[in-house]
Amino acid sequence: MAGRELKVALLGFGTVGSSVARILCDLRPQGLALTHVYNRNVARKKADWVPADVVWTERIEDVLRSDVDIVVELVGGLDPAGEWVKAALEAGKSVVTANKKLIAFHGIELEKLARAKGGFLQYGAAVAGGIPVIPGVQQGLAGDRITRIEGILNGTCNFILSKMEGGAEFADVLKEAQGLGYAEANPTEDVDGYDARAKLVILSRLALRADLDPEEIPCRSITEVAAIDFEYARELNCTIRQIARAELRGGEVLASVGPMLVPKDSPLAWSRGTENTVLVSGQYGGDVVFSGHGAGGHPTAVAVVSDLVNIAHGSRKVEMLSRKTAIGGEFLLRHSIRFVVSDKPGIIAEIALALAEQKINIDAIFQKPGYGSQNLPFVVTVEPCVASALRRALNRIEKMDCLLEKPFDLQILE
Amino acid sequence: MAGRELKVALLGFGTVGSSVARILCDLRPQGLALTHVYNRNVARKKADWVPADVVWTERIEDVLRSDVDIVVELVGGLDPAGEWVKAALEAGKSVVTANKKLIAFHGIELEKLARAKGGFLQYGAAVAGGIPVIPGVQQGLAGDRITRIEGILNGTCNFILSKMEGGAEFADVLKEAQGLGYAEANPTEDVDGYDARAKLVILSRLALRADLDPEEIPCRSITEVAAIDFEYARELNCTIRQIARAELRGGEVLASVGPMLVPKDSPLAWSRGTENTVLVSGQYGGDVVFSGHGAGGHPTAVAVVSDLVNIAHGSRKVEMLSRKTAIGGEFLLRHSIRFVVSDKPGIIAEIALALAEQKINIDAIFQKPGYGSQNLPFVVTVEPCVASALRRALNRIEKMDCLLEKPFDLQILE
Asked: How far apart are CA B88 and CA B71, in angstroms?
């Protein structure tokens, strides 16, 4: 492909799309020319700093049937974005996309299609925005056997949880995040973990070479995390973050997404605001940390333009075979459980008994001063156990009539 | 090159060389076969876990004149390693090297030679060992305009300085590092900054696209840092690290290597032991942090094998033009200066006067309790100034007869 300029079409001219156009116009990377912009109601999108010969269109056929070389898909979601990506690849074009959901659910078949038709499919922006985790893993760690990934992959959750560290409640911070444009009106994809899950599936494919079914990965929402949980976290020298993790264990993979207690000396505790952090552990190279801006127009656009530059330079990625792998078993982890009770003698004994029945050992009990006995919060930490055993114990504990709230448990990252 | 197996020769079977062989034998990456090992007095190196058909030799011609496809140079230094790399490239072979000095001083001509002869030259292990900074920058950030690099690029210095944080003196920790094999008998390359400088030159070429003359970059040794400097650093909420930095400023580059005060909330303050950390700042993507094991047999070997895998997969790197760039001007930075005096009235006045003559403003004065007036250490911090102006002020201050030691100044990283 080297030699002539490659024609680039943008599908979607929102925050990321206009940032991609801005970088292409400002930096003028060699071998690339923006020629088409597709958007619904495109007239309101036209920008005067885009070269006059760029075609603005609201008919997708104008792009798919054109002689464009690379289609940049920034529409998001499975439908119609998936059909458009497929049509572009069928036509022998290359595709650059930031669409984590599409790559998580259909990446393997789309890569196969790209190979068959002679195009490239690149998706560096689909995971951790402007942080080069994908080339870092695909190129830079190709010589290791990666056994574990742990990451903060969702900027919205990180914004909310790092704000809650200061004492605010979830609902208030969510509203603030929505006001700032960091969270959607319907925040489910972010706070319930589905966005991070899609990214974890992509990283598992590239790093662990394991194709996971996204819907098999247990996700837990951060909506139940309360301000008081950060107070108890501090007692444990921890903070709380949404952690997406996957680990090879024999021929299977353990994986989960959800809020966890993270020790303050872990690199995963350092991300502030919308930052992302990914920790990759290799059998030979040990731990490698990547950190930076995981979202936002400009950082995501850097990942997109980097993919475009790689295609223009004829840079091929290392393609490793991945194989269908089942989610097997559960992480063995310490847990912290928050109770709120109307105090009376025998509560700890009953909780301890229910835990002991499941062979779970109590590690410590914390109680913050300043609460009356009629509405008393306290926290119990337990030695490593699987979440399902703890759930069985909690099912029994939840029947105790002294409980004023459902107990809330958090896993503790080692 | 895809299709048949590529034959790999190792030049050097020390810590890194044997780790490379180990990974090649254990993971058996597709498309690569170890065929030759060169080392002086090779008989004592032979390992029984290496396949029996590998040729062990102490004659370099046995490799250079063979049908080997890729030569892995792990000998280090400019001579004879440089001649061997050149001969291999001349013969149309590809070369993978961890030799930062060779790439810093002769990388551009060697890359030109590789291109002309159709081979690849890869050196992912030359900077930050097992941390994929080079592919991260070359592939993953190709779409940004990187304006600044700040890094902890030398594991030996980081080991020494992070140990000194606990109260130990330089000479004692150096001895410990030598005992552990982290420091050479002659530690000059590491502690005086030449190792980090070579890596900074390579990173500047790839990230800033600026070819710097290594010998133009000012280097300052960490040997003068004393345990007490960490006590004053704590007062400033800082620690001390060897920092290599380069920054685009107009058409020129500011660059330096040496000990600096680093705020505790900077990712550069988090590296412990022999870890490396690199912070790359882009005009569009903001700050990206890479961190992990910068040295050691296995992590460095991961970078080498990753380069081999990339060559085997026909993965081409993005080649950006760099251009000869001068080191221009100096960083404008806050400084901290440690004095040890026999106390008498008027000392601060005289120091303040000498600083004021150079238009340098005093920011604060710290004095730790517990010292007698005959041997009194204290620290003066000054507002941003260039090092040369401070040097002129210190030249005058050094003439004061109350001074018991030469004042010691450290720049403060913003």
From this structure: 7
Q: Does pTM surpass 0.80?
A: yes
What are the tens digits of pLDDT across the range A90-104? 999 999 999 999 999
Interchain CB contact of A289 with B (< 8 Å):
yes
- Residue B297 backbone dihedrals phi, psi, to 5 degrees: -55, -60
User: Is residue B349 scored above 80 in pLDDT?
Assistant: yes
User: What residue ranges do the domains of chain B occupy?
Assistant: 6-122, 133-293+319-324, 333-412
- Half-sphere exposure (Cβ direction) of B259: Cα atoms closer than 13 Å: 27
What's the gap between Cα A159 and its chain centre? 13
SS3 content of chain B, % helix, strand, coil (to 5): 35, 25, 35
The yes/no answer on whether domain A133-292 falls in CATH 3.40.228.10 is no
- Report the CATH number of the B6-122 domain: 3.40.50.720
Which residue from A282, A321, A138 is spatially nearest to B301, judged by alpha carbons? A282
pLDDT in tens, B353-410: 999 999 999 999 998 888 888 999 999 999 999 999 999 999 999 999 999 999 999 9
Q: How far is CA A101 from CA A106, A107, A199, in A?
A: 8, 9, 8
Chain A contact set for B270 (CB, 8 A)? 267, 270
Per-residue pLDDT reduced to its tens digit, A177-204:
999 988 999 999 999 999 999 999 999 9
What kind and span of H or E run contains A186? none
Contact B141 A286 (CB under 8 A): no
pLDDT for residue A228: 92
Residue B3: what pLDDT?
Answer: 64
Question: Is domain B133-293+319-324 in CATH 3.30.360.10, yes or no?
Answer: yes
In this prediction, residue A3 carries a pLDDT of: 65
B219 pLDDT higher than 70:
yes
- Measured between CA atoms, how close is A141 to chain B, in angstroms? 6
Residue B2 pLDDT more than 50?
A: no
| Reported ipTM | 0.94
- Cis omega before residue A51 (within 30°)? no
**Cβ atoms of A246 and A253 closer than 8 Å:** yes
* Choice among A79-83, A312-316, A347-351 with the minimum mean pLDDT: A312-316
Across the interface, whether the CB atoms of A314 and B313 are under 8 A apart is answered no
User: Cβ(B80)–Cβ(B12) under 8 Å?
Assistant: no
For residue A88, which of A111, A112, A63, A59 has the smallest C-alpha distance?
Answer: A63
Looking only at the bridges linking them, the beta strands covering B238-249 and B252-263 are: antiparallel
- B242, β-bridge pairs: B259
Q: Please pick, among A93, A199, A317, A368, the residue that the annotation labels catalytic.
A: A199
Q: Least CB-CB distance to A130: which of B134, B286, B306?
A: B286
A199 is catalytic: yes
Within a 13 Å sphere around the CA of B132, how many CA atoms are in the beta-carbon half? 36
Q: Is residue B72 pLDDT above 60, yes or no?
A: yes
Report pLDDT for A243.
98
CATH topology of domain A333-412: Alpha-Beta Plaits (3.30.70)
Whether B70 shows a pLDDT value over 80: the answer reads yes
Q: With beta carbons less than 8 A apart as the criterion, state whether A51 and A23 touch.
A: no
Size of interface A-B (CB pairs under 8 A): 191
Contacts of A372 (CB under 8 A, 6+ apart): none
Helix H or strand E encompassing B193: none
